[in-house]
Design brief:
alpha/beta; Rossmann fold; seven-stranded mixed β-sheet; 9 helices
Length: 249
């Protein structure tokens, strides 16, 4: 995707403005973070790191989390690159990526680094778009980032050029649910892989478009999503994956 990297900071500023203007969005994301929290072990040794924290929402739910991104912002704890994390070996209990994995042009390079910084029982938690029959239409037509189902997933370990903005919304679906590029997961055990409906989010307009329903209807949409989640290949729109590195024998 040929866009400059500073596009990421532009989106952060836009998203932060939308966050405070749309209470419906805050309600939806609170539900997303509750899903992530269910996979966090608060007693595990080591720090909790979020990569690509954007506007820093995880800290509202896990105050002790270290929130990082590529650009300095006052609500973040550090600036860092997911391909070269500034942490010692086995220092972290959890690494969390929320809508970040599909921006990693070199997922193998990142997974190697995550494996290095996580303690042996640590978890890598990934929250991403999920591409189903229904969500493919929405993401494809109304989101500026490509789904890129037909693009090659780059499993090389060569550091990509700096200053480039990469996005492929379909990568998590392809890797974790369709089994593409299985070599990427050879060192990992999947602890949790769930795809679920999220029309409550899709119809909210997200950060960039107006909501198609009022906040008072959120619980109705949430109940609809609960039912449609029984058919993720048809109606899934989000996914949550938790992995743990396989212990060497």
């Amino acid at each position: 995707m040929d866009r400059p990297l500073y596009q990421h900071q532009i989106e952060i500023e836009r998203n932060r403005e939308a966050w405070f203007k749309k209470p419906l969005l805050r309600e939806i994301y609170s539900d997303f973070y509750e899903r992530i929290l269910s996979l966090i072990d608060p007693n595990a040794p080591g720090r909790i790191l979020e990569i690509g924290s954007g506007i820093g929402n995880l800290k509202r739910h896990i105050p002790r989390a270290l929130c990082t991104d590529l650009f300095p912002n006052p609500w973040l704890d550090a600036v860092c690159d997911g391909y070269a994390l500034p942490f010692s070996d086995h220092a972290l209990s959890h690494v969390v990526l929320f809508d970040v994995f599909h921006h990693l042009e070199k997922p193998q390079l990142f997974l190697n680094e995550a494996k290095r910084v996580l303690n042996p029982d640590g978890k890598l938690i990934i929250f991403e778009p999920y591409i189903s029959l229904a969500s493919h239409c929405v993401y494809g037509m109304f989101h500026h980032e490509p789904i890129a189902f037909r693009s090659q997933i780059d499993a090389s370990e060569i550091v990509p050029p700096s200053g480039e903005y990469y996005a492929a919304q379909g990568n998590a679906t392809r890797i974790f649910f369709r089994g593409e590029q299985p070599s990427l997961l050879e060192a990992w055990s999947i602890l949790h892989a769930e795809a679920f409906s999220s029309f409550s989010y899709l119809m909210s307009g997200g950060f960039s478009k107006p909501a198609l329903y009022p906040k008072a209807f959120f619980l109705i949409f949430k109940q609809l999503d609960s039912f449609l989640s029984h058919f993720p290949k048809l109606f899934g729109a989000r996914c949550l994956v938790a992995m743990q590195q396989q212990l060497e024998r």
